[in-house]
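Form 7-S
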Amino acid sequence: MERKTLNMILWPVALLLLNSIWIGISDNSAPYEINDYDHPIEDRTVTLAGVFGQEKPMPAVFEVEFQSLASDNGSVEWKIFDENDLLVAQWSGDLSEESPGWEGELLPGTYRFQTTAEQDIITEQTLFIEPFGPYVIEGHIALSTLLIFVAFAETFVRKKGGEYIEKKNAQALPVKEKVPFSRSNSGMPEHDALPAEDDPWRTPKGL
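Output:
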């Protein structure tokens, strides 16, 4: 298979693979444990940092489960406040009800999670943040542009490198050396063979 044909196949495959990897990275969630079953319920504060210093809102999921150590009933409630003490989300109900949790977006900043429950009720709460979620499109554009640039740069370097090597090899070919004062027999009468009758040292006639 020719190199040009091979490149036409490999570069689109590389582009697809690179974007697939980015999709997997952007969908990853970073967990923040708020409360667990092994510890008493407490108010927790979580600080979310933006990616590359940006202030874009990040996809967030707050998962909540309650359990009672005594009965199947009891009042439970949770609230989420931002750094300005403004209410972001809340839910209240009975232990027998299924806590719906919460799903939305949170800006980088500090958040306080407040949970209220009757005695002998414990909870497990986890906040999941997708820090690269807001940059899915930008990531696809940046990675695709970078790969296209690398493809053109590879082609350019390979072409110029081939031309340079060919030029170098052409200069390195052995050149037949010319001797400036080589002896030549052509046009030199002293080397011309004379017939016997024209020889100046011939025997005189009549002797």
